[in-house]
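Why should sequence recovery work at all? Because a backbone constrains its sequence more than one might expect. Tight turns favour small or flexible residues, buried strands favour hydrophobic ones, and helices have their own preferences. The token representation captures these environments compactly. In the example below, the structure is given first.
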């Protein structure tokens, strides 16, 4: 028998593609679950009414668990006769409850003209409807103003003799209403110097204005303006009297052209206190007649909040 030892060597073959770990999957699943819960919470908050939110708030308020302010809820509210019990600050509030606005009263037995039972109206819906109606009425008035301006300018273009008076007409929409101004040019005045009798071309222009605004319901305010040239006579007749008389003369021309007398709300003279060209008090453009169609509909928003709606008016415009 041989004394040689037999050694057996086992070779273990490694298999590829072993386990690489799955901890990241757990973290990712937790993240997705948290995001789903978050968006579900957002959806619930959006779908819940104010009354339901208030009910949930009251449910979790401490007052909802016990009518007593003490933990024991006993007769003495956590105190005993001879010593202090649970102490708390007098100003410490254990729960905050936000009161809801009172609901409109409903008379169950009352019915409307259609025989249906009355129901309270939503205040927000009422205010929204009122705001929408006011905005629509304002827009309708703006449309009438634009149509009147177009009609007036078109009439001037259709009359060759008055074509040169295009520069004598200023039409603008302001916060007060539609303002039509007839101004003097360097070589074309509306009135003779020192006189309240309008020229013939001034009368024709005023008649065109009357035609453009005749069917509109707006009240009209007439204002006369002069330049800064000193004017007066022995009987103290000056720019104040002259501007007032010119505005009144314009009123008579408008009435003779068919404008209703009850449309005239105001006739005033401003003399030279409101110059159109403030840098040049003697400018002929300061001599003018202003015809303002006063707004019937209030502006449903601040003018400053809607830039571009009205052109900035200068001094005297």
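From this structural description, the recovered sequence reads:
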């Amino acid at each position: 028998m041989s004394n040689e030892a037999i050694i057996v060597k086992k070779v273990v073959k490694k298999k590829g593609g072993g386990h690489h770990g799955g901890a990241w999957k757990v973290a990712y699943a937790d993240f997705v679950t948290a995001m789903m819960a978050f968006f579900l919470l957002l959806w619930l908050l959006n779908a819940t009414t104010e009354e339901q939110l208030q009910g949930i708030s009251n449910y979790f308020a401490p007052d909802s668990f016990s009518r007593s302010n003490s933990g024991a809820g006993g007769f003495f509210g956590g105190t005993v006769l001879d010593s202090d019990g649970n102490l708390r600050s007098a100003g410490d509030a254990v729960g905050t409850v936000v009161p809801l606005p009172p609901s409109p009263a409903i008379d169950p037995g009352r019915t409307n003209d259609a025989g249906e039972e009355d129901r309270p109206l939503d205040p927000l819906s009422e205010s929204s409807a009122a705001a929408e109606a006011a905005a629509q009425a304002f827009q309708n008035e703006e449309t009438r103003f634009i149509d009147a301006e177009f009609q007036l300018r078109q009439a001037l273009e259709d009359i060759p003799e008055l074509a040169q008076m295009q520069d004598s007409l200023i039409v603008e929409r302001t916060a007060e209403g539609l303002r039509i101004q007839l101004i003097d040019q360097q070589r074309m005045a509306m009135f003779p110097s020192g006189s309240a009798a309008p020229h013939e071309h001034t009368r024709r222009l005023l008649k065109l204005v009357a035609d453009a605004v005749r069917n509109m319901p707006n009240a009209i305010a007439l204002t006369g303006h002069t330049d800064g040239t000193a004017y007066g006579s022995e009987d103290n007749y000056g720019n104040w009297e002259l501007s007032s008389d010119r505005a009144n003369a314009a009123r008579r021309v408008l009435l003779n052209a068919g404008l209703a007398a009850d449309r005239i709300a105001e006739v005033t003279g401003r003399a030279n206190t409101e110059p159109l060209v403030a840098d040049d008090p003697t400018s002929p453009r300061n001599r003018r007649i202003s015809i303002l169609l006063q707004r019937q509909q209030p502006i449903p928003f601040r003018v400053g909040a809607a830039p571009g709606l009205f052109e900035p008016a200068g001094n005297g415009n």
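A few observations help interpret the result. Residues 156 and 165 are 8 Å apart (CA to CA).
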